[in-house]
Write a structure and sequence with these properties.
By secondary structure, this protein is an alpha+beta fold. The protein has helices spanning 14-20, 24-33, 75-89, 104-112, 124-128; strands at 2-5, 35-41, 44-55, 58-66, 94-100, 116-121, 134-135, 138-139, 143-149. Strand 2 (35-41) and strand 3 (44-55) form a beta hairpin. The radius of gyration is 15 Å and the shape is globular.
Length: 150
């Protein structure tokens, strides 16, 4: 498996990005401002993440997704590790990530990768998404924000 930065002229794996964020307009918005990285195996894209500068010396992983047939194999952890490496290389001091209150597996993964919960953006998914989102039988309402010093 190889992780590489997508060039602006390359096709973005929108179907994968929509696994992590169901709003195509929100995904398109942060793709225009951020950098997209993909994990490839046998010339097939199996994972993706997007880095978006948010403040001086701070970058956020605004999307991370792994193709359903490749989930549970440690690829998400490798993508997060690569995002941390890229952020350090670019001179960022802090990397952030957010996820829904219902994203139990993602919350565990991010904490295992050294992220700490720093805040809760109450009603984020109610305010920014027209459709209700459910995961693990729980309605996704609040954005849990996590951060890691680099």
């Amino acid at each position: 498996m190889e992780i590489k930065r997508l060039e602006k002229c390359e096709k973005v794996p929108m179907e994968l990005l929509l696994l992590a964020d169901p709003s195509k307009s929100i995904v398109e918005d942060y793709l225009a401002k951020g950098e997209c990285f993909v994990a490839e195996s046998n010339e097939q894209i199996i994972g993706v993440y997007v880095l978006l500068p948010t403040r001086p010396k701070t970058v956020e992983i605004v999307n991370v997704a792994v193709a359903e047939e490749h989930q549970g194999k440690g690829i998400g952890k490798l993508l997060i590790g690569d995002a941390i490496r890229v952020a350090r290389t670019k001179g960022y001091k802090t990397i952030e990530i957010g996820t829904g209150n219902s994203s139990i597996g993602q919350l565990a993964l991010y904490q295992k990768c050294g992220f700490r919960i720093v805040s809760v953006d109450h009603n984020y998914f109610i305010k920014h998404y027209s459709e209700e989102i459910y995961e693990n039988g729980i309605q996704c309402i609040d954005m849990i924000r996590l951060s890691k010093e680099l």
